[in-house]
Design brief:
The protein is an alpha/beta fold. The radius of gyration is 21 Å and the shape is globular. The protein has helices at 37-51, 74-85, 94-103, 143-161, 165-174, 180-185, 191-206, 210-234, 244-248, 250-262, 274-284, 288-295; strands at 2-10, 13-17, 26-29, 57-64, 88-93, 108-113, 117-123, 126-131, 238-242, 266-269, 299-302. 49% of the residues lie in helices and 21% in strands. A six-stranded mixed beta sheet has the order 3-2-1-4-5-11. It has a domain at 2-100 and 273-302: ATPase, nucleotide binding domain (Nucleotidyltransferase, domain 5), CATH 3.30.420.40. The protein is built from twelve helices and eleven strands. Helix 2 links the parallel strand 4 (57-64) and strand 5 (88-93).
Length: 306
């Protein structure tokens, strides 16, 4: 029996971690066939059992995006884990597992800026999430924010001054800008497609395109605002940062780190993926932090039925 497992669940599927390896021991791609997040997750867990039929555990911690907002029943997921893996379960958010992967039982703020954007901090008996609200209400400084801002600003620059460099680069990715209003109206530009444009913006920024530089530096400022606001609200001074945008764009990262330094906060790169945080929560047993997470509604714990 594997004593402890960490499972990281995202839009692309689930990844499973144990103490035998630095990386995932198994991955299951998301089918997303039922349009029901809970059923898709149960299907993924059943796919894991088919892939590793002998897999059992004492405790499993599962961290998922949208834990508190997508209507997934933690009890149903825990029941499924008990049935398939004969394990106790901790069900929580990937923001919690990302935080625990870096800080463990210590205080601090974890900031992850990728397709979306989120800051989450714990200090003493306080906790706070800033952003993580999705593309419509938040995700400030995220890949989606960068892509959408680039689409808007490139059209505006062309109309006002005839500056077409950024516009032409984006047209190579999503077609003639004359068709963009129709693509948005018909919802043919997905969030992932728009977020993917951030790579082109980053490339142009590195080449010195001023409009791209301004967008990327503003993205870093917005990410820093989330981190600083979270840290000040709970009295934390340590920031751990990661995600494809902060790690992939030097312009975004330098802008972000500069603002943190001005605010007197200490920062370092997140060293471990969320799945490792899930594994460490499973390994920690009845720790003070797990008790805090459960008492604050940030995690759900269920013992397997004997």
């Amino acid at each position: 029996m594997t004593r402890f497992l960490g499972i990281d669940v995202g839009a692309s599927g689930l990844r499973v971690f144990d103490s035998s390896s630095d990386g995932p021991i198994a991955s299951i791609d998301a089918a997303n066939s039922s349009k029901n997040r809970e059923q898709d997750l149960i299907d993924g867990l059943e796919g894991l059992k088919r892939q590793l039929p002998q897999l059992k555990a004492q405790t499993v911690c599962l961290g998922m995006s949208g834990f508190s907002s997508l209507g997934v029943s933690a009890r149903q997921i825990a029941d499924t884990i008990a049935r398939l893996l004969e394990a106790d379960s901790v069900i929580t958010s990937d923001m919690v597992t990302a935080h625990y992967a870096h800080f463990g039982e210590s205080d601090g703020v974890a900031v992850v800026i990728g397709t979306g954007a989120l800051a989450f901090g714990i200090s003493g008996d306080k906790h706070l999430r800033v952003d993580g609200l999705g593309a419509s209400l938040g995700d400030h400084g995220s890949a989606y924010w960068i892509g959408l801002r680039a689409l808007r600003d490139s059209v505006r620059a062309n109309e006002l001054s005839g500056d077409r460099e950024l516009l032409r680069a984006l047209e190579e990715e999503v077609g003639d800008s004359a068709n963009w209003p129709r693509l948005f109206a018909k919802q043919e530009l997905s969030e992932f497609m728009v977020a993917g444009l951030s790579r082109k913006v980053s490339q142009l920024g590195d080449e010195g395109n001023q409009l791209a530089v301004e967008i990327l530096e503003r993205a870093g400022e917005l990410a820093a605002e989330s981190a600083i606001g979270c840290a000040r609200a709970i009295g934390a001074s340590q920031i751990g940062y990661g995600g494809s945008v902060l790690l992939g764009s030097e312009l975004v990262r330098n802008s972000f780190l500069s603002r943190l330094a001005e605010a007197g906060l200490n920062s370092e790169e997140l060293k471990h993926p969320s799945g490792v945080g899930a594994l460490r929560i499973a390994e920690a047993g009845e720790s003070d932090r797990r008790g805090f997470l459960v008492s604050e509604g940030l995690a759900y714990f269920q013992e397997r039925a004997d």
